[in-house]
Amino acid sequence: MATLKKSARKTASSTKNENLQAQAERLSKSLGESAQQVWLAGVGAFGRAQAEGTKLFETLVKEGLSLEQTTRKLAGGKAQVMRDAVESTVGQARERASDTWDRLEKVFEERVQRALRRLEVPGREDLSALIDRVDELNAQLRSLGGAPTAKAARKAPVRKATKKATKAVKKTVKKAPAKRAPRKAAKA
């Protein structure tokens, strides 16, 4: 009866562990897929903005050429004035396109940052704080005399090389035929 209870507990425990492991694998897979989707969405948004930005610029150039041709026909001698106005309009359009790109880049960065925060990826500030903490702990270790010195840090590779050389010498000694010591004559 006791053996039956123990085996039932073991079965229940192993089933529980398998369920937990399967759940952890599913969670890991879903996080990976989510990160991939965020990345693809960002790349898609960038491509779309690039295509639309180019189309907008081309449309503005066409409108500017059309306006310039119309004004030349109407104004005759005042074409230079109108040309300056068109160039000014084109310059403004370029500035708007540049502003659009800047805003789009900012939106993209913010969305990626939000996705990274949701996935609990440490940010620049977190890493900076961690580096500061490690430096502080190193300083405390040095003050206590527990930190390895530069001399000890240099000795580590030398120790490894010494161990390798010692092993090589031992192998060579094992392979070499042993010399027998001469026997002393027995006293009679």
What would a concise description of this structure say?
The protein is mostly helical and 188 residues long. The protein is built from four helices and no strands.
Descriptive overview:
The chain has 188 residues and is mostly helical. It has a domain at 13-121. It has four helices and no strands. The chain is elongated.
Key descriptive features of the protein:
188 residues, mainly alpha, 4 helices, elongated
Beta-strand residue fraction: under 5%
Number of strands: 0
Helix and strand sequence: HHHH
Characterize the main sheet: none
Shape: elongated
Unreliable stretches: none
What class do helices, strands and sheet pairing give?
A: mainly alpha
Blueprint (SSEs and pairs):
Elements: H1 2-75, H2 79-118, H3 124-144, H4 150-175
Helix pairs in contact: 1-2
